[in-house]
UniProtKB/TrEMBL annotation:
Organism: Centropus unirufus
Gene from which this protein is expressed: Morn5
GO CC terms in record: motile cilium
Superkingdom assignment: Eukaryota
Protein name as annotated: MORN repeat-containing protein 5
UniProt keyword Protein biosynthesis, yes or no: no
């Protein structure tokens, strides 16, 4: 079984970097998620005893006094950090500046969907899958 410092990639693409003991996460280690988020934690027998999740944009999750997107304040994190845009300029995603969506296509989270071709391409316009 895995033991010592190392890295392990799970089937879904999530990576673990840190201490391992008898095949389990043990001690300090970090999970890196494919979308860019990370969970840094202290592990005991494969379970986190304490830790902190940070989203891809740098926003740190807090389980107490969480004020982001709470029903009263629906601004994106970049709007909280940089301020709101002038009237008439809408921010539709957390990205600032936003992605350029090709005409007639839809942003579907991991790429663009073209309803005419029924194909989804990634953000570099490389084929991902048929819809």
């Amino acid at each position: 079984r895995m033991h010592g410092q190392g890295s392990y990639t799970l089937a879904a693409g999530t990576e673990y970097h840190g201490a391992l003991r008898d095949g389990l996460f043990e001690g300090r280690g970090t999970l890196l998620f494919p979308g860019g988020g990370r969970f840094c934690a202290v592990w005991h027998r494969g379970r986190p005893t304490e830790g902190k999740y940070t989203f891809a944009d740098g926003l740190e999750y807090k389980d107490k006094k969480w004020h982001y997107c709470d029903g009263y304040d629906r601004r994106f994190y970049t709007e909280i950090c940089s301020g709101l845009k002038p009237g008439g300029i809408s921010q539709l995603t957390n990205l600032d500046p936003p992605r350029k969506i090709p005409d007639g296509c839809y942003d579907c989270g991991d790429g663009f969907y073209n309803p005419e071709t029924r194909v989804i391409v990634d953000y570099r316009l490389r084929f991902l899958r048929n819809a």
